[in-house]
Amino acid sequence: MSELHVMDHPLVRHKLSIMRDKETGSKDFRELLEEVSMLMGYEVTRNLPTKKVTVQTPITTGEFDMLAEENITIVPILRAGLGMTTGLQKLVPFAKVGHIGLFRDPETLEPIEYYCKMPDDVAASTVIIVDPMLATGGSSSAAIGFLKKRGCNNIRLMCLIAAPEGVAVVQNDHPDVDIYVAQLDESLNEHAYIVPGLGDAGDRIFGTK
Ligand code: PRP
Ligand code: URA
User: Fold this and answer.
1) Could you identify the atom of ligand 2 that is nearest to the CA of residue 80?
2) Does ligand 2 lie within 6 Å of residue 135's CB atom?
3) How far is CA 23 from CA 98, 145, 196, in A?
4) What are the φ/ψ torsions at residue 88 (nearest 5 degrees)?
5) What is the CATH number of the domain that holds 67?
6) Going by DSSP bridges, is the β-strand pair 133-134/155-162 parallel, antiparallel, or unpaired?
7) CB-hemisphere CA count at 13 Å for 30?
8) Does residue 188's CB lie within 6 angstroms of at least one atom of ligand 2?
9) Domain limits at 34?
10) CA separation, residue 127 to residues 34, 84, 123, 184 (Å)
11) Measuring CA to CA, how many Å separate 209 from each of 9, 18, 25, 40, 102?
């Protein structure tokens, strides 16, 4: 069964509260999103396997831990997922980045795919899908389904804020995918926006409204 990991950290809660404030402008919003993504990356990567390597320190030789493999792909769901990518890249600088473009049809709320570019070996990598908002779950579930069709079988989903409805959809559609969120909000409104939420994440990152 898919596990839901909710970050329980005062710094994350503090930064997210500033992001929720409608008076917070795009520059601060982007910087805070990058910082929170970095902090979340610490949890998302917690169970990556390690191996022992021999290291010669200035004093002696020892056996120390390093990641068993460096095949990690960050997959932002465009556009808003881009805002979480740089923070994770700073933490995992060797990660590749694959992009998937989806938008919600405002009438049907169904996700529409408009772009996709993945690394050639994405099927063999640990995939971290990033998107600030998990609302109805349609976009994330579709992105996961798409990556599974490309052969990926080691996928985790990292979102800033989730609604319970979206978590339920992803867990039902993809019980093998763990979900990491900074906070779990109350519900969705009639336009499928997260309540209390932070509004439209893409618009707040890119200043389009
Ligand atoms: C937002 C958000 C998610 C999606 C979440 O993107 O970034 O991708 O909505 O909603 P869902 O869980 O109901 O699918 P949006 O479609 O607004 O596109 P944008 O990133 O280009 O702004
Ligand atoms: N997409 C957003 O950007 N915000 C929401 O609250 C829901 C979907």
Assistant:
1) 3
2) yes
3) 32, 36, 15
4) -65, -40
5) 3.40.50.2020
6) parallel
7) 13
8) no
9) 4-206
10) 19, 14, 9, 22
11) 31, 19, 11, 27, 19
Q: Work out how many domains the chain is built from and give that number.
A: 1
pLDDT greater than 80 at residue 104: no
Interval between CA 61 and ligand 1 midpoint (Å): 50
* Per-residue pLDDT tens over the stretch 16-35: 999 999 999 999 999 999 99
Residues sharing a CB contact under 8 Å with residue 40, sequence separation 6 or more, in sequence order: 7, 12, 84, 87, 158, 160, 180, 182
Distance, CA 79 to ligand 1 centroid (Å)? 8
Distance CA 149, CA 105 (A): 23
- Residues with catalytic annotation? 104, 108, 200, 203
Strands 111-117 and 4-6: unpaired
Burial (CB count within 10 angstroms: exposed 0-12, middle 13-18, buried 19+), residue 104 = middle
Contact yes or no for 156/180 (Cβ under 8 A)? yes
Contact 173, 145 (CB under 8 A): yes
Amino acid at 77: I
Examine the pLDDT at 155 and tell me if it is beyond 80: yes
Ligand nearest the Cα atom of residue 166: 1
Give dist(CA 146, CA 200) in Å, integer.
Answer: 24
SS3 call for 185: coil
Q: Is the pTM of this model over 0.90?
A: yes
Distance 71 CA to ligand 2 centre (A): 30
Letter for the amino acid at 152? C
